[in-house]
Amino acid sequence: MPTLVRAGVLTNFLEVAQHLGLNPQAELARVGLSKKMLQDPDQSIPAGAAVQLLENAAADSGCATFGLRMAESRQFSDLGAVALLLTHQSTLRDALQVTVQYRHLLNRALAIYIEEVGDLVIIREEVVTDTPLPCRQATELAIGVMARLCASVLGPAWRPLSVNFTHGAPEDSRVHRRVFGCQVNFGAEFNGIACPAAAFDAPNPNADPAMARYARRFIDSLQAPGEASVVFEVRKAIYLLLPMGRATIEQIAQALGINVRTLQRRLEDSDANFSDLVNEVRRDLVQRYMNNPIHSLGRIGELLGYSLPSSFTRWFTAQFGTTPAVWRAAHGKPYLPPV
């Protein structure tokens, strides 16, 4: 069964598509969706169809910032019932913890990991589908929505240090600068937002603890749009933790809130193997990194969890039938050392 998400993830697709001269109904039909499906934001739709819709619309309109333009015109209420709970959290830290806890009600295809490093907080995000798909538009939509969420909680106190994307820069990045209001890095090692740790615990002047308790009780009574398999949840965790060097079964189990034996048993029940899942994610990520001229082959190996270049070369050759250097010369972009 395909992974399902709320139709609300495509809120304002029709408006943005029409504004850019597209026929929204034709775009929807192309991926097996319809205008009627989007009328109820809580209806379940296939995650892969939603992601492909955004990529198609960007290509057909010639607008490389299609997903980001959707994020720019989103309303906080478009997050559904979870928006009420987020509005009344005491701090941004609390709001982000709610986002992680209830992400299955927001966007089940979205993986989120909050990392604190000294006086820096990094919000990592990945859009993951059942089979790997180009996710540039969905990623920019997700990170744009996250930035707007943070700004809604903190108001003028929200001053991110940088927004980061693993994909390359568009020809014109004015929309990115307008939406995020900070440095935007393309060809980065992760997708997400870096912000000062001090902002993480800044008080939310609109917080109402009583309303937050009421909202949480209501949200806990809601049904998720289809239950994601443990295999899919593990894949999402691997996407986030592999570039950090933490994609061990112990770390993945901890991220999912279960013990290793339980995770192994659930994977076995699903006829899945943890090592195979890591390998599957590596195959997807390596092509993303190889097409990024900022990364050397040595750095790519590190991002995939290999401490020795020779180990990375052996793995790559076994997977693709040629060495990384030869593959990159034929398919990717040549490495451009920093000046």
Automatic annotation (TrEMBL):
Q: Which InterPro entries match?
A: AraC-type_N, Homeodomain-like_sf, HTH_AraC
Entry GO terms, CC: cytosol
Read off the SUPFAM superfamilies from this record.
Homeodomain-like
Q: Does the keyword Signal apply?
A: no
This chain's protein is named AraC family transcriptional regulator
Keyword annotations of the record: DNA-binding, Transcription, Transcription regulation
Q: Which PANTHER family match?
A: HTH-TYPE TRANSCRIPTIONAL REGULATOR GADX
**Domain annotation HTH araC/xylS-type: ranges:** 232-330
Which Gene3D superfamilies does this UniProt record tie to the protein?
Answer: Homeodomain-like
One Gene Ontology term of the molecular function aspect: transcription cis-regulatory region binding
* Family matches, as Pfam families: Arabinose_bd, HTH_18
Q: Which organism is it from?
A: Massilia cavernae
Q: Which residues form a coiled coil?
A: none
